[in-house]
Amino acid sequence: MRVGLVGCGQIGRMYAEHLAASGDVALTCHDTRAGQAAALAAQVDGEACDDVERLLDGAEAVVVTSSTESHDALVALALERKLPTFCEKPLTLDLHRTRELGLAADHGGTPLWIGFQRHFDAGFSALHDRIADGDIGTVYTVRMFSHDAAWPPLERLAASGSIFRDLMLHDFDMVRWLTGREVSGVAAIGDVLAVPELVELHDYDAVAATLGVEGGGVAVLTAGRHSPLGYDVRIEVLGSRDCLTVGLDDRTPMRQVTEHGPDRRPRHRDYRDRFAAAYRAQIDAFLAAARGGEPDPRAGTWRDSYAALALAMAAERSVRTRSFEPPVEATP
Question: Could you give the domains of the chain?
Answer without folding.
Answer: 2-118+279-301 (3.40.50.720), 122-269+306-321 (3.30.360.10)
